[in-house]
Amino acid sequence: MEIALIPALADNYIFLLYEPEQKIAAVVDPAQAEPVLEKLHELGLNLVAIFNTHHHGDHIGGNTKLKKLFPNLVVYAGAKEEGRIPNQSVYLEDGDLIRFCDVVAQVMFLPGHTRSHIAYYFPPEKPQQPGNLFCGDVLFAGGCGRIFEGTAAQMFESLDRLRHLPGDTKIWCAHEYTLKNLHFALTIEPGNLHLQNRLKLEEIKRMQDQPTIPSVLELELQTNPFLRWDQPTVQHVAGSDVPVKVLAKIRAMKDSF
Ligand code: ZN
Ligand code: FE
């Protein structure tokens, strides 16, 4: 499976998953139809599926138009969306498996940002290769999604599950928020050398107009304060050593950053 990253709207990323030989593609969170159509045309691909992570407009904006142009395409989203995903045809539960060409994705139910958010995890196709996680607005590079519909406890549990994926897993999140996130992270852990180094590297990428996505889980574990509730420095800033309280506090601080 190949992955193409397509920038959309102000700071969204759409991901096109495809098999070059079979000329078949699926798209994760089409914020808009047009950039997806351009990429499909450029690569000569037929679109067979949409994988939506959640119902927000910047993740489903292209659904209706794509479904019109590709009437046979299957629209996957979480079981709890209850009508919020245009053209949804499959309602996914935690642990469900989706076959796309020769690969299988595992569905992870990760509430917190919304009550029905899911992620798609593709385990390594071969040993030594990294898996790929498409996590929408749950985990970002250097940050995490706002808690809109869920609770801090749900967000905590969702992030904790992601923490336990293999360290080399590629993190394909839906927004280019990385520099802002890292600037906030430095206010929490100013002495974190991994974080200082990362900010320099990510700044260079952005200056060259390159995406900072995908990230890698290992790097997130070293630098993302929303995965570091067990670190004394982070606990000190949050004023608690109870993991869920640490996460809730850091998230509240970010909301007003
Ligand atoms: Zn969202
Ligand atoms: Fe979003």
Which word captures the global form?
globular
- Provide the CATH architecture: 4-Layer Sandwich
Total helical segments: 9
Q: What's the CATH class label?
A: Alpha Beta
**How many structurally independent domains?**
1
The small-molecule ligands in this entry are: zinc ion, fe (iii) ion
Structure commentary:
There is one protein chain. With about 260 residues, the protein is of the alpha/beta class. It has one domain (about 1-255): Ribonuclease Z/Hydroxyacylglutathione hydrolase-like (Metallo-beta-lactamase, Chain A), CATH 3.60.15.10. The chain has helices at about 35-45, 55-60, 65-70, 150-165, 180-190, 195-205, 215-225, 230-240, 245-255, and strands spanning about 1-10, 10-20, 25-30, 45-50, 75-80, 90, 95-100, 105-110, 120, 130-135, 140, 145, 170-175, 215. The strands form 3 sheets. A 6-stranded mixed β-sheet has the order 1-2-3-4-5-6, covered by helices on one side. It has a 6-stranded mixed β-sheet with strand order 7-8-9-10-13-14. The radius of gyration is 18 Å and the shape is globular. The chain starts with a strand and ends with a helix. The model has no long low-confidence stretch (mean pLDDT about 100). The structure holds zinc ion and fe (iii) ion. Fe (iii) ion (FE) binds near residues 56, 58, 137, 174 and 175.
